[in-house]
Each structure stands twice: as structure tokens, then as C-alpha cells.
Amino acid sequence: MMALETTALTAAGIRPGTALDEAVQTRAGIFEMTQDAEASVLRPQDPGPWSHALRAALAARIATLNAEAGLAARYAADAGDFAGLADPGSDGSEQGVTEVVAFMDKVAAKTRDVSGADISALQAAGVADADIVRLCELNAFLAYQIRVIAGLRLMGGVSA
């Protein structure tokens, strides 16, 4: 894989042949590992109750909540029947994941307000601890990826 084929680098708008591109190439392994992490979180071998399509929809939603329209569109393309969840105006009731959507939104957009009560609400809704961890992994990865993209844009003088 060439480093410039990663989601983060594509979303950041890194142009081939620029000084930033050259700098990125010296750290290609980091970007390849980031791409591998994306695959592990969005398309794991054992997705638990969170299908690949649902994960893509939640990733698109998180990207939208963070004003990353291009990244959101990339993930929404894989959301299938869950595509409606990419819109933060959807509460997840149509898909039966209201509690999950509320939790993911809060973690993505109001991280400081997340508390043990939010985990308890998921547990009360029947979400197993391992599946809560899966949701947190997805949100944590997106937070990392979005920050990497923003940092690369700043370094390259590219606006979102």
C-alpha cells in the first residue's frame, strides 16, 4: 500500500510531490498502521452485534458531527440499510439503536459530559460490556483519525 492511499491522507488533501507528502512518506508505516486500525474497527472479523454497515453509518455520523463531510461521505457509502443514521438528525429509533446513537453522539461531540450513567444506560438497554467496548473503540478511532486529518491540513495549509 502506498501511504497516500490511506483514508486519513486522502481526506487531508495531501498532494503528491509537496514537502508535506515527502514528510509523510518518511512516516508511511504510521499511516499504514492507521489504515489497518480503521479496517479492524470498521470491518472486524467478529463485529458482535454491530454489523459492518452499522459501523460505517456510525463512523459517517461521527465524521459529520466533527464537520468532516468528505470523510462522512466515504463512510456513508458503506452504510447500506443504515445510511439514514449518518444524519445526526436521525435518533436511531427506526433501526432500533436509539440508546447506541445517543451514546455515540455524546462520546463524539460532548466527551466531557460522558459519565458512568451513560454506560449504565447502554447496559440497561441490553448492550453487553464487550459490545460497549466495541462502540468505544469505534469512537476512539474516529477521534484519532479526525485529529490526524486536521493536523495534516494545518501542516499543509489546506482547509477542510
UniProtKB/TrEMBL annotation:
This is CMD domain protein, Avi_7170 family. It comes from Psychromarinibacter sediminicola.
